[in-house]
Write a structure and sequence with these properties.
Oligomer: single chain
Shape: globular
Bound molecules: 5'-O-[(R)-(carboxyoxy)(hydroxy)phosphoryl]adenosine, zinc ion
Distance between the termini: 27 Å
Main location: cytoplasm
CATH class of the largest domain: Alpha Beta
EC number: 2.3.1.234
Structural class: alpha/beta
Catalytic activity: L-threonylcarbamoyladenylate + adenosine(37) in tRNA = N(6)-L-threonylcarbamoyladenosine(37) in tRNA + AMP + H(+)
Number of domains: 2
Helix content: 40-55%
InterPro entries: ATPase_NBD, Gcp-like_dom, KAE1/TsaD, TsaD
Cofactor: Fe(2+)
Length: 340
């Protein structure tokens, strides 16, 4: 098989990314560049991502990210074999900005265009970092998603279950907001939890009593809100220690639910490996809990920078699709919803 070099673009949420990934024949893929421009500061005042602001920022940043990604890879646009882009699911304005940019580049350089599902990008990341063979069980845990997938081929995913309400990342973000910690909530809650006592507050472990791999995280948020309000009513506010204990209790509950459901999903999938991806997989406690749940099978957690949104995973998923003969034309749509 030939060497392939793919330029990938990502703009489905609040990170603008461009990256170049190359794979020579059956060799290990190489990330030649992976540029991510976050928008944290733009959305900070609003306590969450504002879609319209995100879309405008993507439009402004995409060209510059592409230029930097090509420059860092030491390549010209004409030297890449194809252009891959997140075509959904995500915030429609951002996805549109990326798809339009990719179409422009593909037309200008006369290159094939490959539309990539953002979730497939996350789910195929362990093959980029660890040459993991199919099939494997993937736990995708991010700000918008939480599901178990048996990954059988670059375009064959079997869903075993997932959240019936909030995604864990969303729960981390809301927890941070409730406690007055900075966004994105995942890293700030993890930091606070490291100094806290996970046993002080007894948070629920929703759906553990129910068979199957479905999960629920919205009740956890409600329990946290109650505990916070109880403390505020009793003592007029929260101390640093209270915040740390609340974060530790919350994080421990998330870890327990994810770990137990992962054991069940592994038993059902029967795959020789478990891999994780998505922003929440950057959490050290979550990783440790999942590694323990994966006793007896191979466990793969890509580096944190490749777990959160990035364009290298899109370039890689595009490379896998392109190798399998898949290309799109200028009619490629931007899809806000696109189940795997
Ligand atoms: O995959 P991602 O970058 O974007 C999508 O949702 O697709 O994930 C972002 C989510 C946010 O909710 C963020 O708070 C969470 O991942 N996250 C974390 C950590 N780092 C990021 N959650 C828990 N612990 C972390 N260290
Ligand atoms: Zn994502």
């Amino acid at each position: 098989t030939d060497a392939l070099t793919i330029l990938g673009l990502e703009s489905s949420c609040d990170d603008t990314g461009a990256a170049v990934v190359r794979q020579a024949g059956g060799a290990r893929p190489e990330i030649l560049s992976n540029v991510v421009a976050g928008q944290g500061a733009l959305h900070a005042a609003f306590g969450g991502v504002v879609p319209e602001i995100a879309a405008r920022a993507h439009v402004e940043k995409l060209d510059h990210c592409v230029e930097r990604a090509l420059h860092e890879a030491g390549l010209r646009l004409r030297e890449v074999d194809a252009i891959a882009v997140t075509a959904g699911p995500g915030l429609i304005g951002g996805v549109l900005a990326g798809v339009m940019c990719a179409k422009g580049l593909a037309a200008a350089a006369v290159k094939p265009l490959v539309g990539v599902n953002h979730l497939a990008g996350h789910a195929l990341t362990p093959r980029l970092t660890d040459a993991l063979p199919f099939p494997y069980l993937m736990l995708l845990v991010s700000g918008g998603h939480c599901q178990f997938l048996v990954v059988r081929a670059p375009d064959r995913f079997e869903r075993l279950g997932g959240t019936i309400d909030d995604a864990p990342g969303e729960a981390f973000d809301k927890t941070a907001k409730l406690l007055g910690l900075p966004q994105p909530g995942g890293p700030s809650v993890e930091q606070a939890a490291a100094r806290g006592d996970p046993a002080r507050f007894a948070f629920p472990r929703p759906l553990l009593d129910r068979a199957g791999c479905d999960m629920s995280f919205s009740g956890l948020k409600t329990a946290l809100l109650r505990a916070r309000d109880g403390l505020v009513a009793a003592q007029g506010g929260l101390t640093e220690g209270d915040r740390a204990d609340l974060c530790a209790g919350f994080q421990a509950a998330v870890c327990d639910v994810l770990a137990e459901k992962t054991r069940r999903a592994l038993a059902r999938a029967g795959t020789p490996a478990l891999a994780v991806a998505g922003g929440v997989a950057a959490n050290g406690a979550v990783r440790a809990a999942l590694e323990e749940a994966a006793a007896g099978v191979r466990f793969i957690a890509p580096p944190a920078a490749l777990c959160t949104d990035n364009a290298a995973m899109i370039a890689w998923a595009g490379l896998e699709a392109y190798r399998a003969g898949r290309v799109d034309d200028m009619g490629l749509p931007a899809r806000p919803r696109w189940p795997l």
